[in-house]
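Section 3.1: Structural characterization of target chains.
Under the original work plan, the team committed to producing a structural model for every single-chain target entering the pipeline before any wet-lab resources were allocated. The record below documents one such target. The sequence was received from the expression subgroup and is listed exactly as submitted; it comprises 123 residues.
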Amino acid sequence: QVQVVESGGGLVQAGGSLRLSCATSVRTSSIDTIGWYRQAPGKQRDLVASISSGGRTDYAGFAKGRFTISRDITQNTVYLQMDSLKPEDTAVYYCKRHDRVITIERVQEFDYWGQGTQVTVSS
């Protein structure tokens, strides 16, 4: 069973930094992408950044220039470095691992979510 565990959230003042970690169990070649999402109260869950198995990164517009996603393959961990934080970055941040299993018969895709970690940015 794949497990996804986030850590690193907390309370920080505007302009400060946090680094979130996403640890996933069971490293396999089926991992396609790992992404960070966030959800503020009363709002939908939005993609923040993602990194593919090949190392390609993608960022939401609000994250470009302030957030950096990276990975440590040996530790099965993906990081989200968040700098120049703003009060509007306050949200629960979730990590999602997307697997793609390809066999002769079919392609199966699976999503595994963590429980989330709270990030609060005070003004």
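The two ends are 40 Å apart (CA to CA).
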